[in-house]
Amino acid sequence: MINLGHLNEKQREAALHGEGPLLILAGAGSGKTSVMTHRIARLVLDEGVDPRNILAVTFTNKAAGEMRERVARLIYGAEAMEENGDGLLRAMSGYGGLWILTFHAACLRILHSYADRLGYTNGFAVYDPSDQKAVAKRCVKALGLDPKQYSAAYVLSAISGLKEDGKSPAEALAEAEGQYVGPRRRDIAILYKNYSEMLKRNNAMDFDDLLLNAVRLFGQNADVLERYQNRFHYIMVDEYQDTNRLQYLFVKMLAAKRGNLCVVGDDDQSIYGWRGADIRNILDFEKDFKAARVVKLEQNYRSCGFILDCANSVIRGNPDRKDKALWTDRGAGDKVIYRMVADEKEEARFVADEMRRLADGGRRLRDMAVLTRTNAQSRTFEEAFIAHGVEYRMLGQVRYYDRKEIKDMLSYMALAANPKDDVALLRIINEPRRGIGGKGTDALAAAAAQRGLSILELLAGETGAGGADGTDSTGGMAGLAGIAGADGTDSAGDAAGLSGMAGLAGAASADSAAGAAQVPLTGKAARAASEFAAVMMGFAEACGDMKVSELYDELLAKTGYVKALEEKGTPEEEARIENLLEFRSAIIQNEAEDPELALSDFLEKTALMSDVDNLDKGADAVTVMTLHSAKGLEFPVVFMPGMEEGLFPTQRSIGEDGRVDEERRLCYVGMTRAMDRLYLLRAKVRTLYGRRDYTLESRFLSELDKSVLDEGADKPGGDLTGYLHGDLSGGWGGARPFGESGRRPIDAFGAARADVKQREEAKAISVGAGDRVRHRKFGAGLVIEAANGFATVMFDTEGRKKLALDLAPLSKEE
DNA sequence: CGTGCCAGAGTTTTT
DNA sequence: CTCTGGCACG
User: Fold this and answer.
1) Which among A68, A521, A658, A674 could bridge A525 via Cys, Cβ 3.0 to 4.6 Å?
2) Is A673 a catalytic residue?
3) How many CB atoms lie within 10 A of CB A724?
4) Model-level pTM greater than 0.85?
């Protein structure tokens, strides 16, 4: 029997639930993951349920991974997991095992088995937002619409909205024409249609499609739906309050036969309404699933009393809530600290300083987080942290896989895996420079479209005898074989095997002969395109038999990508090369975890990966991220800056029906991330988009129960003098107004910390993070990072640059 | 074809 | 303010 001893009564009730619909209303920090993992383990161990009969879906990889890990621990025991965690996890959660997956990953697995039913072939690509954007732009352009009126972002969100409503392009079009709803709606409907067709031609799905197509697959194929209904006897859904219509349908269809649906969520934490999440899904669960049992988890194990009271007092302001109230037996703890400061710089300085103070008192930096409403706010914190020597890590900047060089290599791999992928091709056909620019690609795209081929197929066909129709997505090889065999134009005989290289020798000379008629390129560009196509078709054929890392290495070498970077040789390119090496390690690591790793698996994995997944938990650094990305996380110390009307709640939410309620929930989510200490900050003046404005305090501050607040000792209204006292007067270099070393820690832990950061006397140029420097050309700047003879410098006017310390004309400024 | 300049837009974004 | 994308110029 599985031990449920450390669960509380409510938790145990939920974990013991067997058949029938169950709604677990799980307040923040109430241990819902424990409940779900125990329920799964109990079904398997005590009830003898086959793990393959269980499906648990989450929203994030992180949540899925955590759940998998904890379930495995319960099933196999902690010891076995220590010994062979990876192996056991793989054994448990493989294709035919226990599915604990994100919505998208679950849909992907299903679609993988039935891609053909929807007219896709199996190597279909998954497009990320940057790919989507490229497609949207092409569609707008193709229709001759004004790209200003129809920005990619606008078009995509409109399309996404239609998809989330489960509408097909035809339906959208019919609606737009049925009654007169304006040309805009009609244009969007047409764009939707063209966008969908282009994706399909490219054998690609975007994120929405994964869900939409899974639901469509079920809807159109009773046998498929039945198969999965019979497979999944028990279905669990995490964060149910964030499900959109499609996700709701997906779950509902799967659960329709047996009705064993267990959903876990908290209506107070619904913060993705703007993305289509429908809070009614959770509010109406009991209506939807008759005789549903409801269990409320209201005991909070995370936050201390004052923090909880604070959060409760804010969320109370919302209408239409499921009735519940969090409580804790952790004790009252510290009051919530509220400070008003002069402006955002003071705000960031206050935070940096407070963090240093807490660190001096024995807190780890990794235990602290700054949760902002907008990404733009993070910049000020970055600067302050650098200046104050606070190690930090930031989320929500450029996603790792969005870095140009990584995305380029991924596109190369994607094209090898799926030769129909024009978006990937267009991204890289001139990267590195091959002399094929906008005009060339436009012509190629047009020619390919006309013949119903992908661009690569067109190019590859051209190198052959001109048989345009010979190639298909999987057998791209047919095209290459064509070069070697049928084609008689030249010495193509040596184009055998993988060596696209050999192919290009043949292709190069073919351009004048067969090419011109079909490929709208001439001279150098035509040669380059043929060469490119031959190489890529070679990879397309070979990639099935290669390890991903091998493919990657070959691509780096044969496409000349690294070479082009090396030739430029600027620090920026150096950094890109470093990133490419780092990416290689990531591939190797993936292969270590899964020796069978196929190219398509890897591409899918990266496509479905977010940067929260890469958050390096080991590093001892404070975290800066948006409130949205903090959901599901917890930190002993949380700072919430920017408690101002117009920023939080945002200007755009004010006045729109229900939008402020969601902001309020977001505020609640933020506050309930804090375990021991919560700081609320408000700047009196804030600069937004270069405009300095006086602020009003956030309504969330006005609303909350003031008795939980510590508003600072020595000021009535709470102004910046509240923290500009005593221990801040020291200072390192005289230039810095607020230093660290002059201060003595005052905390209980407070042995004076050795000043580790003391700098060596500058002889030549030895600089460290936080130093001001002057560059002969770039002017004054701040060192962000210095290591291995390189320094990354944020210049005041020139932006960020990486410089070699022994070469750059740099001098240190005091 | 590639660079540089200017205009315009700028919540949040688990996948 | 600061990034992005489109366009004009060399």
Assistant:
1) A521
2) yes
3) 19
4) no
